[in-house]
Specification:
With about 450 residues, this protein is an alpha+beta fold. The protein has nine helices and 19 strands. Strands 3-2-1-4-5-6 form a six-stranded antiparallel β-sheet. A five-stranded mixed beta barrel has the order 7-14-15-16-19. The chain has a five-stranded mixed β-sheet with strand order 10-9-8-13-18, covered by helices on one side. Helix 3 crosses helix 4. The relative contact order is 0.14. It comes from Asticcacaulis benevestitus DSM 16100 = ATCC BAA-896.
């Protein structure tokens, strides 16, 4: 996702822009009616350890350039990672030739110039770039400390599975033949730990904890990361199977975003335009309880998905996707918007080697009024789902299922861990009945509180 400019290295940015400008000029001379070029530089360093020993040290520095050209309503996208004049000349020649042979697409074009981001005299500082460089030695020590923090429980049933730390710093520049120019820098610092707990019968359970932030100073204490990861693994020991039944399900906030992710996928403009979404006729309809609000805020300070413009240069803004439970709009890039007769909503997302798709920025489902414990008391019995895998959804009907594990609760209190279960239901029904808890923590590109849904099908023994 393209982000915004934050200027500690304007000389590099200017060099990127000049190269792209030359590429666009060459593409127009070669026969392109319109074109768009993106240049990306990335620097990263990460260290992984296991059982007190370094397993991986990875350092990467790379640069790539992508060119999208239009010949009439035909388009092609080509990318390279070597920038000699001969290579760039071939890039332009190949892209125009490919576009000439491509099938006609009546919706293919650059973004509407009226929607493009225009820098203001004053704009908020989104604080997306931290120039901090961490040495491999310091990253190694942090990873070892994560392991030590988890093993400090002193429980013999516990062993480290892996711990890793690292960071990546990016710079992107994008130019279009319509006159858009945008440059940005971003950084990401991350750490994680994962542990294995083994019971007396040799049954193993794995769990972990991880965090990614824009600024190194915002990383949590490494000992806390290790301790929480270890506690989760130990808590899963002794998991049982349950009988097949219908019961309440409390999706823990760590994985509740998976449920909301199904909703976001179903309102993607490309899905709606193809007619392949179970929500294709639900625009303006009440999908959730009136207390539910789902916000996409691309202007969040230090947000992992924050930006001033999307990957087509369209200006972005804070949007209520669900307002008082009602679906207020689709997620649109230029192509999907044209197909549906609507303007882009600033949700274009692309790699350097492909046309734009659709993606969100910083999604938040706002917190409810009751704690997860209070919702469990109201439900009486059911499952707290802390892990899901292998989700399956029928895009036409919304029928959904996933493998899961977590904890059974009785009389509103956790009783024992459970595994090898499936959770199933219809997403339209799930959306209508879900109740948000009050435990929202904003930390990623999609954040939700825990979500209670009563009467779901649980598959067990």
């Amino acid at each position: 996702m393209l982000q915004t400019r934050n200027d500690p290295d304007s000389a590099r940015a200017d060099a990127q822009v000049q190269r792209l400008d030359d590429i666009l000029t060459a593409a127009r001379k070669a026969g392109a009616d319109a074109c768009e070029a993106v240049f990306a530089e990335s620097r990263s360093l990460s260290v992984g350890v296991r059982k007190g020993e370094v397993e991986t040290v990875e350092r990467d520095e790379n640069s790539d350039l992508g060119l999208r050209v239009f010949v009439g309503r035909k388009q092609a996208v080509v990318s390279v990672s070597e920038f000699s004049k001969a290579t760039l000349d071939r890039l332009v020649e190949r892209a125009v030739a490919m576009a000439t042979l491509a099938p006609e697409d009546p919706y293919a074009s650059l973004a509407d110039p009226a929607l493009l981001y225009k820098p203001a005299a004053t704009k908020p500082d989104l604080q997306l770039f931290d120039p901090t460089h961490l040495s491999a030695e310091s990253l190694q020590q942090r990873a070892l400390d994560i392991e030590a923090g988890g093993l400090a429980t002193g429980n013999d049933a516990l062993q480290s599975d892996a711990a890793s730390t690292g960071y990546v710093q990016n710079m992107w520049s994008m130019l279009t033949s319509d006159g858009f120019r945008g440059t940005h820098q971003t950084s990401l610092f991350f750490q994680s730990g994962r542990f294995i707990a083994t019971d007396a019968d040799g049954n193993m359970e794995r769990d972990g904890e991880g965090r990614s932030v824009r600024f190194a100073a915002d990383l949590p204490d490494v000992n806390d990361t290790g301790r929480l990861a270890a506690e989760r693994a130990l808590a899963s020991l002794g998991a049982r199977k349950i009988e097949t039944q219908k019961a309440a399900v409390l999706f823990d906030k760590r994985i509740a975003k998976s449920v909301i992710g199904q909703f976001l996928g179903a309102i993607s403009g490309s899905m709606i335009a193809r007619g392949s979404s179970f929500l294709k006729k639900k625009l303006g309809h009440q999908l959730f309880d009136s207390s539910v609000q789902i916000i996409d805020d691309p202007l969040r300070v230090r947000g992992l998905g924050s930006c001033f413009f999307d990957d087509e240069g369209v200006a972005v803004s804070r949007r209520a996707i669900i307002r008082d439970g009602v679906l207020s709009g689709w997620l649109l890039n230029t192509g999907a918007g044209k197909q549906l007769g609507m303007p882009s909503t600033g949700h274009a997302s692309r790699s350097l080697a492909s046309p734009p798709g659709v993606a969100t920025h910083n999604i938040t489902l706002e917190a409810g009024t009751q704690s997860p414990e209070a919702l469990m008391q109201l439900a009486g019995k059911g499952v707290v789902v802390t892990s899901m895998f292998g989700p399956s959804v029928n895009n036409d009907t919304g029928d959904w299922s996933a493998g899961a594990s977590g904890f059974w609760f009785e009389n509103g209190v956790i009783a024992y861990p459970v595994n090898e279960i499936t959770v199933a239901g219809n997403l339209i029904d799930i959306f209508k009945r879900l109740v948000p808890a009050s435990d929202l923590e904003v930390r990623g590109t999609m954040d939700t509180p825990s979500l209670l849904v009563e009467g779901l099908s649980l598959g067990g023994k």
